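All the exercises in this workshop are built on plain-text protein records. A record pairs a protein's sequence with a compact description of its fold. The structure tokens are whole numbers drawn from a learned vocabulary of backbone shapes. Once this layout is familiar, the rest of the handout is easier to follow. An example says more than a description, so a record of this kind follows.
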Amino acid sequence: MNHQHARRVFLKQVGLLTAALALTKLPAIGRPLLVPPLPTHNIPFDKNLDQLWVKSLYERGMPTRYLKSRNELKYLGMPVSGLHSGTVYVGGDGRLWLWQIYNASMEGQHEGITGHTTLWNDGSSERKIRPRDGAAYVNPPLANNFRVLDQGFALQVRLGNKTMLKELNEDSWDEILFEPTYPTATITFRSEDIPVSVQMKVYSPFIPLDPDNSALPATILRITVINHGTHSMDASITGWMENGANKLSAASGKGFRRNTLISSPECTSIFMDFDATDTTLKTMPDAGSVCLTLHGKANGANTAFNPWPVTVQGCNTFIGSVANMPAPEKLVGSIQAAATILPGASWQTDYSITWHFNHPHPKLVKMVKDAADGYWYGKRFTTALQVSEYIQDKLGYLTHTTELWAKTWNDSTLPHWFLERTFINIGTLATANTYRFASGRFWSWEGIGACGGTCTHVWQYAHSMARVFPTLERDMRQRVDLGTGFIPDTGAILFRGENETRPAIDGQAGTILRFYREHQMSPDNAFLQQNWQGIKKAVLFMLAQDKNKDGMTDTPMENTLDAVWEGEIAWIVGLCIAAAAAAEQLAIEMNDKTFAKICRDYVANGRRNMEQYLFNGEYFIHRPDAVQGRKQLGSYNTCHIDQVYGQSWAFQVGLPRILDKEKTVSALQALWKYNFTTDVGPYIKTHTGGRPYALSGEGGMIMNTNPHNEANPYGESVTWQLGYFHECMSGFEHQVAAHMMAEGMTDESLVLTRAIHDRHHGRKRNPFNEIECSDHYARAMASYGTFISACGFTCHGPQASIGFAPRIQQEQFKAAFTAPEGWGTYSQSLTTNGQQHRLELAFGKLTLQTLHVNMIRFVIPKRITVTVNGTNKTLKYRLNGDQLVIDFLQAFTLGVADKLHVEVIC
């Protein structure tokens, strides 16, 4: 979230400050209570859950399917652009929409996927909600209203003397089925009046551990036509695309749109650019090029196709090597492929759409100097045609490996809905929320166009990118956190890089934990060795914020709730303890024994005092400053969603416990009791001022509640940030779900995650867009942490160690994993005389020295054997609690398709 003035102005405009003072009946400072008390806590303790429904959450189930017949397609918009290359959505009927590729997203100018405010009645009043504050949640955009560029496909079938023509759109087919398995979407078209079905698979190349080939400004559309009849048929697919060059800036008399045909036996492209007579148009944010390509033999092409209504006349010949159209006019190119399909057979053809708009918004260039030289894809390619040629050259690798990852991720025993919700938010990287500049630097907003600077206290919640594209996170730690955003004299990390002048205490601590995670997701010690001195300074700065040396940081400093809180705050104290624990492990690996002891002492001191002074017998609290008291805004004795966040982080990186298990679980149970509700409606009706990220009738976990109905629960000087306490923000909820899963509260974890999933069902809004401060909010990538916890996954690349301890379905478990240099599948199962564990690598390589697995049933093993592709490995093993630790006498490396098998005889 952002501290900036613009947000305060908005919140005051919607009456948050006055509503907080008037509607919640807070007394004036220094005056007796003359008004009715605060709204009472009205979240039911008994969640009244159907236990059969809870049980069903564990079941494998079916992949989510959205159907035309159920009117579920209109809001669907799955990102299918490359990482950091703008936002392109595929809609429910396979057509592309939004096209936020023109560098228009900018703080205060175009925040979010729409530019419009909407009205929302929160139960007490009607308010205006801006895009950065949830407009797309309250009033989701319709795909048909955001078709910035014309694009589509048509199928023609000749069967005997009969010719049938259908566009691939919602109006032309009886049934359309949309199946999302991010990064791929599969759309199936069926009708009674035609003996074929069409399947379209849409995605941008997405290959974990390969950030360059996952960051192409491109969408691939793989179309398969299936002949269900008893006779052969002639079929053709015609794909068309509008010239999108200078789409926003071109005006009459300023130049011509130009389509150029480039054809070969293997590939046909229509390259689309703008021939500007006004040179100022050449550097506009929307100046660039687009390219439509058929990757295969073409049956025809047309540089000036008129598809309204669509006909095939002129498509099956090559018409016009170059076409020009005056600036304001629409110019469309088309390419046709054709084949004869035997009965029961199918025919596949591949198209791609690529783009190249390498002129960042002028205001962004002023914000971030790296933006001046354009983007990473702009450095690699000079035009959209070059991108297309690259795809043509590597089409086999790009399509096969993307689809291999989708298969690997979804070939699991975990519930389909769970896999979808925990992974889906990594699509944020493929939207206009993130950039990668020509220098290689990663940079992002918090949500699209809002709150810039890759904010540390937001991104430290997000686990997806670090696990799937770890090189990007390592570069950010080194280039920004210890580079442009680092103050070497003090060790402070500015929480928005060069876009800020202050550190944030939670961002500082979280970034130290991220250094540890990035080290673990490295193949060797180089990252740690290169950055240790800077990391050490950052840790010392964090430790210095504990003024009274009791292990509980107490220096007032900015935090993610956009306020400077006084006193000792459980979630910040615990996060700093976790960061110190991570720093201790790093110091041990660096053989810095003195510093390791400093960190170890801090952890021990902080844990002891946090458990003694910040635990109220049920949950962890915020102890007021001894002098200030409760004058300033804070959480105090209320039940705060992040109160044991430090322990949650510790699980993500395999640290020893930093807080007592009994007290921690008690705190999580309190969050479940006091903050989670299956219907937020009654709460937000009485506790006004929050933004609409969950609406009446929807379930969620409220940020902060006052279960004891105390007066002045949030302090005497109530400020605009109070509104956050009454909201459901999915990134925080995912953090709690991940922690609950790790602590064995699996029912609660799944119910909470499912509540988020159900809030984002396609019949209500776009399932692929979790909103906080604007659309596709970065913190929502905390969802991947719940997957990590479900797998009990640990990894330490430099130590060649990997581990799994599934929290659910232990007796028969299978899931994907990503390691520093490879990814694949892990599985485990019970056998009649013990248990077995398997690793199979699908991509890259995996070096192993130590393997940790859990004893599914805790008995002493009689014999353990490990084979790789049938060959025995020499090992020794030990039990560590319920963990079986297998140490190989010599490290070895698994390659693609290698299989490791562990047999445990009990």
About this structure: Confidence is low (pLDDT under 50) at residues 2-36. The longest strand covers residues 883-894. The chain has three domains: 5-48+412-791, 78-95+150-363+372-404, 794-905.
